[in-house]
Write a structure and sequence with these properties.
The protein has 446 residues and is of the alpha+beta class. It is built from eleven helices and 18 strands. A hairpin with a 2-residue loop joins strand 11 and strand 12. GO terms for molecular function: ATP binding; ATP hydrolysis activity.
Length: 446
């Protein structure tokens, strides 16, 4: 689970700004908060909504997470540039590194990961396991100098293997995070893979994080798989009676043989079906024995005589297609066994208010002390700033100051922001910031 994400010197976020998911002591709606293992004595918020004006920088928190994911899953090659995008409104920012700090829970343990990089290389990198009373450093990287306290702590029997691992890891390229490199290195059969698990915590956790950009046409995640969106989409009051799956030849997808092979390889590793969408329609791909099976998905609409009418996917509205994509992901998230973080940019771009509320409430109804799923979204829709639906520490106000720097503050940090107050009215009156002060626009003609 995500516990805290801090960003500095990335796009409009110059000074460190954090999204903290650890719950405060507020008792309101606390029974639905996931609980960490007993040693930590903490609960975590399963949801966070980022509210703010246009261009306040809400999306940059999600873009930062996506950048970190890509750095770990697909780091730059020697001839490729680093994804360095420093704050543009201060000249000195280009001389400073971008910093991502990630606090997360994985396998029942808490970890802190810090990555600092500039336009040329990784500058600093740290991974620490947080125990109940002490911390255990896993690795330290500072300008090409490495330390592996975790490997140094191994017993004498494992000393030779630890030395081999240390030697291999110190060969990491300058542009590649160590947290990425350790997941790709072949350590050989004489190394106990279980003892490397703390080194792999970052890459394994980030596989469970999915960022959905605003207006995304399609997103895919082996970890999220395929959810039961077919049932959910009939409940959105859009005249949809059901979903029809028609088996077709794989060639109907209009994709290359190479991509079909990639689908097969992915299904052999993760048997859950894959759904894909392109200009030829929406398809579900699965394995039946050794055979690749493809189904074309269409929605059944009810006409005036209650007769189901199937439309081509291309003829469905953008809103309906967006709803299907997000409902698929959220339905997986709402499965009690899912470990994952779904981050959706501009939720209101896909759903109207009541549908957004129904989706959020439906997800929260599945959350509890044993759940391990989180939903984080950005929105302009103030009707979602509902204290009966969200706790005050789940409502985040994002704004830019006069220097163009983005900051984020939880509503619980404001004095007088009672859970029974009219939060929307107070917000629009400027009591909490995050709302633009606008005069009527002047349009000049001629």
């Amino acid at each position: 689970m995500l516990l805290d994400f801090t960003v500095a010197n990335f796009r409009s976020i110059y000074q460190p700004a954090s999204l903290n998911m650890v719950a405060t002591r507020e008792q309101h709606l606390r029974d639905r908060n996931p609980a960490l293992v007993q040693r930590y004595k903490k609960t975590v918020n399963p949801i966070a909504g980022l509210f703010g004006a246009n261009a306040a920088g809400k999306s940059n928190f999600l873009k930062a997470m996506q950048t970190l994911k890509e750095l770990i899953s697909n780091p730059p090659r020697p001839n490729e540039s680093m994804p360095y995008d420093p704050f543009a409104l201060d000249r000195s920012a280009s001389q400073q590194p971008t910093t991502f700090e990630l606090l997360f829970e994985w396998g029942g343990m808490m970890y802190e990961y810090i990555l600092c990089y500039d336009s040329n290389s990784v500058v600093e990198e740290y991974l620490t396991k947080l125990l109940s009373r002490t911390d255990q450093e896993i690795f330290v990287r500072e300008r090409g100098v490495f330390a592996f306290p975790y490997l140094d702590s191994q017993d004498d029997a494992a000393e030779k293997a630890a030395e081999k691992v240390r030697t291999l890891l110190e060969a990491v390229p300058t542009k590649v995070p160590l947290a990425s490199y350790v997941a790709e290195v072949n350590f050989g059969g004489d190394v106990d893979k279980q003892k490397l698990e703390p080194l792999l915590a970052v890459s394994e956790f980030l596989k469970t994080v999915l960022v959905v950009p605003a207006g995304a046409v399609d997103v895919a995640s082996e970890q999220f798989g395929v959810g039961d969106w077919q049932e959910a989409i009939t409940q959105i009051d859009a005249g949809i009676a059901g979903v029809h799956a028609e088996e077709v030849e794989p060639s109907a997808m209009g994709v290359s043989a190479e991509l079909l092979r990639e689908y097969r390889q992915a299904l052999e590793q993760h048997p859950a079906p894959i759904e894909a969408e392109n200009e030829h329609g929406r398809f579900r791909v699965a394995l039946n024995g050794d055979n690749l099976v493809v189904y074309r998905m269409t929605l059944e609409h009810v006409n005036g005589t209650n007769t189901p009418v199937r439309l081509k996917w291309a003829d469905e509205s953008d809103g309906t297609k967006a709803a299907a994509r997000l409902l698929e992901l959220v339905s997986v998230l709402a499965d009690g066994g899912t470990h994952g973080v779904l981050m959706v940019d501009e939720l209101d771009r896909s759903f109207h208010t009541e549908l957004s509320r129904a989706l959020i409430r439906g997800f929260l109804n599945t959350c509890g002390p044993d759940s391990r799923a989180q939903l984080i979204f950005t929105t302009h829709d103030l009707l979602l700033m509902d204290p009966q639906m969200l706790r005050r520490d789940e409502i985040w106000l994002v704004e830019k100051d006069h220097r163009g720097q983005t900051s984020a503050t939880a509503l619980s940090d404001y004095d007088g922001a009672r859970k029974d107050a009219d939060l929307r009215k107070s917000y629009l009156q400027g009591r909490f910031g995050g709302v633009p002060a606008l005069e009527p626009l002047e349009f000049v003609h001629g």
